[in-house]
Design goal:
The chain has 9 helices and 12 strands. It is an alpha+beta fold. Strand 3 and strand 4 form a beta hairpin.
């Protein structure tokens, strides 16, 4: 057996093992960390399988393609192939929620605020609202008079949840280190529902799993009708996101697509090299019509615009 074939076998087995381990998130969050690479590893395995198939290394090719297909199928919810679009009810108003991780060192602060004002969402979920944003972000106060602020210790800043509609201060909860903001919103028709924002830290060995465990009791208190968007720092198909949704009794909206990429790569590569870690969830009488990433605004994340109606 030549060196190249040995290398390909080891690579195929290693990638297959990493994909398999990623399904063991319920056992320990360390395994869930592997799940975040599932989509890219699976795509790589399929390409590898097709290439080695041409060399008639059939068993290696079949293994790579089979594991790759399983991996792609189980991570499809985070891709644009699963894009969520529901026809709106013409008899009811359509509302919007904008979620954006501002990126605490974003230099395009004026342009970001200009764009938010132009988009004119009813609700705004912002994370990494650092102190350097203090001057520019005050421009939102006039149009969005209701604010829930969950500060985070440190320079990156916390969560700011803006609303055109009244927020119930008695219902509000802030998770540790600005990880979770929950509040009751009163819509124009008088309907009350729960909303807010999420900004968990990175998966194990970082503190994201610890934050999630801390807020789970609060997630269980979410009422019958709710909508949330946020930077989960975890992929749409991960155990972490599924655990959050299960505790809150919420549905994960598929098909937002990749929203984050490392600084070393331009955001224009996000669609194929990025990760879908900015997620949207709904519950009860909130009907999400669409949820999609929009244009680059200088962050390492893409903003996500959500259109919804209240049943």
């Amino acid at each position: 057996m030549n060196f190249l074939k040995k290398l390909i076998i080891l690579g195929t087995l290693g990638a297959s093992l990493a994909i398999g381990i990623g399904f063991l998130g319920p056992i320990h969050p360390a395994f869930d960390t592997f799940s975040h690479f599932r989509l890219h590893l699976s795509a790589g395995l399929i390409v590898l399988g097709l290439i080695v198939g041409l060399r008639r290394w059939i068993r290696i090719a079949l293994l790579a393609i089979l594991v790759g297909i399983i991996g792609l199928y189980t991570s499809a919810s985070g891709t644009l192939l699963a894009k969520h679009i529901i026809k709106e009810d013409a008899s009811k108003p359509t509302y919007s929620l904008l979620h954006f991780n501002l990126y605490w060192i974003n230099s395009k602060r004026e342009q970001v605020i200009d764009k938010i004002i132009e988009l004119d969402p009813d609700l705004i979920s912002l994370s990494e609202a650092a102190t350097r944003w203090t001057f520019e972000i005050k421009r939102l106060d006039k149009k969005w008079p209701y604010l829930m602020h969950c500060p985070e210790w440190g320079k990156r800043g916390g969560i700011r949840f803006y609303s055109k509609w009244p927020l119930d201060a008695t219902s509000q909860y802030c998770g540790p280190y600005g990880s979770f903001a929950r509040t009751q919103v009163t819509a124009p028709n008088g309907t009350k529902f729960i909303s807010g924002s999420v900004h968990l830290r990175w998966p194990w060995p970082a503190s994201g799993p610890k934050q999630l465990n801390t807020i789970i009791p609060e997630l269980k208190l979410i009422g019958d009708d709710a909508i949330f968007a946020g930077d989960f720092n975890a992929t749409t198909w991960s155990w972490s996101v599924a655990q959050f949704a299960k505790a809150a009794g919420m549905e994960i909206i598929p098909g937002v697509g990749p929203t984050w990429i490392i600084d070393e790569l331009p955001l224009k590569y996000t669609w194929w090299a990025g990760l879908p870690i900015d997620n949207v969830m709904r519950k009860g009488g909130i009907k999400v019509l669409s949820a999609e990433a929009i244009e680059d605004l200088g962050s390492d994340h893409l903003p996500v615009m959500v259109k919804f109606q209240i049943k």
